[in-house]
Automatic annotation (TrEMBL):
Belongs to the IPP isomerase type 1 family. The keyword Metal-binding does not apply. Pathway: Isoprenoid biosynthesis; dimethylallyl diphosphate biosynthesis; dimethylallyl diphosphate from isopentenyl diphosphate: step 1/1. One of its GO terms (biological process) is isopentenyl diphosphate biosynthetic process. The lineage of its organism: Bacteria, Pseudomonadati, Pseudomonadota, Gammaproteobacteria, Enterobacterales. Its EC number is 5.3.3.2. This is isopentenyl-diphosphate Delta-isomerase. InterPro entries: IsopentenylPP_isomerase_typ1, NUDIX_hydrolase-like_dom_sf, NUDIX_hydrolase_dom. It comes from Klebsiella aerogenes.
Length: 105
């Protein structure tokens, strides 16, 4: 499934701003300035045995660097325009994680 670029939970006593940059480096081997763009609360039944109930902080960053994806964290990545992404999620929601559809829409 396709999902958001990077996600995690802060470590105990770790500031959110530090956790964001730690995970960017751990997952994508890169850094960039990040700006908060909001929060989202969702509750989604993913399978009969799994319910996602999360409160997420959303951040946005831009970079012209090529990600150096860590294979234990990232299976694949792709560059896609926002318009193409909206169209693909609308046409093929089964290809995306439940939380990503909530975030995007």
């Amino acid at each position: 499934l396709w999902a958001n670029t990077c996600c995690s939970h802060p470590l105990p006593n770790e500031p959110l701003s530090q956790a964001i940059h730690r995970r960017l480096n751990e997952e994508l081997g890169m850094q960039c300035d990040m700006q908060p763009i909001g929060t989202i609360l969702y509750n989604e039944k993913v399978t009969d045995d799994l319910i996602e109930h999360e409160f997420d902080h959303l951040f946005l960053g831009f970079s012209d660097k090529t990600p150096q994806c860590h294979p234990d964290e990232v299976m694949d990545h792709r560059w896609i325009s926002l318009n193409e992404l909206y169209h693909d999620v609308e046409k093929h929601p089964e290809n995306y994680s439940a939380w990503f559809c909530h975030i995007l829409m």
